[in-house]
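tool_call predict_complex ligand=calcium ion
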Amino acid sequence: MKLGIVIWGAVAAIGFGLAIPAAAGSGNCTRSSTNGGRACVYVNSDYVGMFAYKWQGSGLSNVTGSNNDVMSSWENESSRNGAWYKDADGRGECNNMLAWKSTSYVGWVDNDDMSSWRMNNSC
Ligand SMILES: [Ca+2]
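tool_result ok
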């Protein structure tokens, strides 16, 4: 790539970052050419420690074993709305994981409580 293009790209990226401060997260939750976008969940705040992901359109499943009740942040890098639940099998309090949104910390009330989730609908 020519130097001029690199510099222009960097300037554009900085400007873009300032214009859209709410842009998601970590860069770990990447798209797939075959499966499209996905949502990712992390054991720590600020998208640290990804322990599970779910492709857009995937149905409800439980998080089990050491993954149960550990989620502190999430990002949805897909065009589909999703949701997470405090109890298994889609029960308990439901929290939206809307398309193209992310949460760097779910807050102390909701921290370490996710037991099931889906990527085919919001609450
Ligand atoms: Ca729970």
